[in-house]
Amino acid sequence: MRRYRQDRAYEKRKTRMNRRHGLTAALFRVAVVLGLLLFVYGGVDYYQNRNLDRTLKLLEQVGETAKTVPAKVRDLVWRAENEIRELAGEQTPSFPLDEIPEYSGEPYVVVDGNAPDFTDEERASDVYEYYNELDSLGRCGTAQAMLGPELMPQEERGEIDMVHPSGWHTVEYDCIENGYLYNRCHLIAYAMTGENANEKNLITGTQYMNIEGMLPWEEKILQYIWDTGGRVLYRVTPIFRGSDLVARGVHMEAESIGSREIYFNIFAYNVQPGIVIDYSDGESWLE
Fold it and tell me: Among the residues of 179-256, which ranges form H helices?
């Protein structure tokens, strides 16, 4: 009887292993097919046609399934998704994360000689604001706007506690002023557009990044608009590595229209001095 139970247990384990390996192989084949689609259908031109929505929906379904399989397979699927979204113009960081130096004490670093990468068409646009859809991991993409007095809010900011960005944790440390490690960081500040509890505009960011890395640049833009009534082309892209849920930082670009009073291109580090962050899920501990 004991031998019978052992054999039954072995068969069950073997069946589970076969199913798991079969799913992994299936996801790998899907990723390969998506890569072939990029090659066969001509890259960007193909993903600008009517098949783009169906392709991205398929990727979202694959991404949901991939949450149950090993990390290597998840990374493969989500790298494929990010590549396709970038080609589609949905999330377009202008540099690889590997080109950014490690944090060394300054809250930000200048990118591409401090020159923002906007097109003439973007510079000629009227006021607008645009926020990318969340990806299959619930992560924000690029937020872009042509800022002007017209977009500024006329009422006080409301609550945003109901929004939980990817990688969110409520955690406090004695070594941090005001205690909390993370803020719900607006990609485009509320004072610029009045967008508040918009999940497409909120990421998990450290107090340090929010106050030391982003706020000084936001204040420059706001002061310029208040003083001149002019317009500023502005783009903020959270930069994730692989399938991380917390961004390594934000890429901020801005250019005032008709002048160079506002003109910058920087990367603000999503770090907190004295704290170690696991960017894969937002967990943290004292250094």
Answer: 190-193, 207-208, 215-228
